[in-house]
């Protein structure tokens, strides 16, 4: 009887999933968008809607091909800035495109997943911040791979002693991504949410508008320390990124 | 005097119909049932190889699958593969995981031999030779008939299990350690029993013998 039950379990639940992409990165309904790239990154496209994660808390919809084709050059141009060695170090191999990305019903631009070497990107994310969002999410992958380099507690010490970050990135209403005129230690409102978002914001600005940040830090000693911290830690991983 | 009775037209039609029925019944039971029919068995005496040291011959129900190993691409993996072949460890190894027209997988020495299949542990068996480091190649393309070492979700967990692709799977490039490519006998691999809708196969087909090519 036990054997019969075992057989039923094995042959009922382990249905064939001929989807080789799913077997590798555990996201269903994907197709290859562009496989051969100089830095060995692989671009995948959602040909159908998908839900993944604990209780399917991550959801995203299939892309419109024309929409993707129009946005791909922007994405490719930005991701090309990372060489294959660096991408390997931060466990990034697959970039997945979809539209309308939600985590626990909260809209988000991207989801980094070091375990599956994947970055999911919402190609419909606000165009104003789109390029910066890519680097922001990549920073999270960097931090996940180099936790010792980017210690949250150590980083938080750069702030004035009376400042407190929120409990989590979505626990506060500090969500605005616009650059502050007067920085006072923070580039954006979102920088004030948690240390890792603060670091990711700095990194993303350094990637898309380094000169502007260099100007800002001249009159902001806290931000100056933070920016130099990020620069020095990144250079330990790869000297050519920043 | 015996009178010859001429068959009527309808009797003639019935007779022809019965003959056709008999022929089709014979065909279905004895010919079509034979899955190896019309498959080239790849007689080794008729084949010549440029690089015989790296040719392995996997004998299956329908004939020989001739494989060329690529030690230049993955030296450690090919060395392990050859060791297991020479020790006859793959003899009786079941193709327990078969995805129709996509890939076949065998090589679980501990739990995947046809003599002692253990479905509760299959896929987790060890060769006893230890795990291998992944030897990934960004140049090796997993075209139809490519052989790669299987691994767990983690890299550097290759041991003895291997898979053969039945179609091009570009996403595997740089993901799995390549071992070689099928030179002859892809048709034979395509005849391997599938699990219908299940990923694991009940009463699976298996490797009769697996040997390196004997050079005389």
Order of helices and strands of chain A: HHEEEEHHEEEEHHHHH
The name CATH uses for the topology of the largest domain in chain B is Cyclophilin
CATH fourth-tier homologous superfamily of the largest domain in chain B: Cyclophilin-like
CATH architecture assignment name of the largest domain in chain B: Beta Barrel
Give me the number of helical elements of chain B. Answer: 3
Question: Can you tag this structure with a few keywords?
Answer:
heterodimer; A: 242 residues; alpha+beta; 2 domains; 8-stranded mixed beta sheet; 9 helices; 40% helix; globular; B: 216 residues; Cyclophilin; 8-stranded antiparallel beta sheet; 3 helices; 8 strands; 19% strand
General description of the model:
- The complex is a heterodimer of chains A (242) and B (216).
- Chain A has two domains: 14-126, no CATH class; 146-242, no CATH class.
- Chain A has helices at residues 2-13, 20-25, 65-79, 84-89, 130-145, 152-156, 195-208, 210-216, 221-237, and strands spanning 30-34, 42-46, 50-52, 58-61, 94-103, 106-107, 110-113, 118-122.
- Chain A is of the alpha+beta class.
- The longest helix of chain A is centred in the C-terminal third of the chain and has 17 residues, at 221-237.
- In chain A, a hairpin with a 7-residue loop joins strand 1 (30-34) and strand 2.
- In chain A, strands 1, 2, 3, 4, 5, 6, 7 and 8 form an eight-stranded mixed β-sheet that branches.
- Chain A has nine helices and eight strands.
- Chain B has 216 residues and is α+β, with helices and mostly antiparallel strands.
- Chain B has two domains: 7-38; 44-212, Cyclophilin (Beta Barrel).
- Chain B contains three helices and eight strands, in the order αββαβββββαβ.
- Chain B has helices at residues 9-32, 75-86, 186-190, and strands at 55-60, 63-69, 97-99, 103-106, 146-149, 162-165, 177-184, 209-212.
- In chain B, a hairpin with a 2-residue loop joins strand 1 (55-60) and strand 2.
- The longest helix of chain B has 24 residues, at 9-32.
